Amino acid sequence: xxxxxxxxxxxxxxxxxxxxxxxxxxxxxxxxxxxxxxxxxxxxxxxxxxxxxxxxx
Length: 57
Fold this sequence. Notes:
The chain is mainly alpha-helical.
Protein backbone atom coordinates (compact mmCIF):
# COMPACT_ATOMS: atom_id res chain seq x y z
CA UNK A 1 0.00 0.00 0.00
CA UNK A 2 1.22 3.48 -0.75
CA UNK A 3 1.77 5.87 2.13
CA UNK A 4 -0.57 8.44 0.55
CA UNK A 5 -3.30 5.79 0.21
CA UNK A 6 -2.99 4.80 3.87
CA UNK A 7 -3.14 8.43 4.97
CA UNK A 8 -6.16 9.13 2.78
CA UNK A 9 -8.00 5.95 3.84
CA UNK A 10 -7.53 6.49 7.56
CA UNK A 11 -8.28 10.22 7.35
CA UNK A 12 -11.51 9.55 5.45
CA UNK A 13 -12.53 6.81 7.90
CA UNK A 14 -11.84 9.12 10.85
CA UNK A 15 -14.02 11.83 9.31
CA UNK A 16 -16.79 9.34 8.57
CA UNK A 17 -16.76 8.00 12.13
CA UNK A 18 -16.79 11.51 13.58
CA UNK A 19 -19.73 12.40 11.37
CA UNK A 20 -21.64 9.30 12.43
CA UNK A 21 -20.81 9.97 16.09
CA UNK A 22 -22.36 13.43 15.83
CA UNK A 23 -25.78 11.88 15.28
CA UNK A 24 -25.33 8.81 17.48
CA UNK A 25 -26.22 8.48 21.13
CA UNK A 26 -25.24 6.35 24.07
CA UNK A 27 -22.43 3.82 23.79
CA UNK A 28 -22.43 4.00 19.99
CA UNK A 29 -21.27 7.62 20.14
CA UNK A 30 -18.31 6.73 22.33
CA UNK A 31 -17.40 3.73 20.20
CA UNK A 32 -17.51 5.80 17.01
CA UNK A 33 -15.35 8.52 18.55
CA UNK A 34 -12.82 5.90 19.68
CA UNK A 35 -12.78 4.38 16.22
CA UNK A 36 -12.26 7.83 14.69
CA UNK A 37 -9.35 8.46 17.05
CA UNK A 38 -7.81 5.10 16.09
CA UNK A 39 -8.08 5.90 12.39
CA UNK A 40 -6.59 9.35 12.94
CA UNK A 41 -3.72 7.81 14.89
CA UNK A 42 -3.05 5.42 12.01
CA UNK A 43 -3.11 8.32 9.53
CA UNK A 44 -0.62 10.19 11.70
CA UNK A 45 1.62 7.12 12.00
CA UNK A 46 1.60 6.71 8.22
CA UNK A 47 2.40 10.39 7.80
CA UNK A 48 5.39 10.14 10.17
CA UNK A 49 6.78 6.78 9.03
CA UNK A 50 5.57 4.85 12.09
CA UNK A 51 2.86 2.78 10.41
CA UNK A 52 2.78 -0.86 11.61
CA UNK A 53 3.21 -2.14 8.03
CA UNK A 54 5.74 -1.25 5.35
CA UNK A 55 4.35 1.39 3.01
CA UNK A 56 5.51 2.43 -0.43
CA UNK A 57 6.41 6.07 -0.84
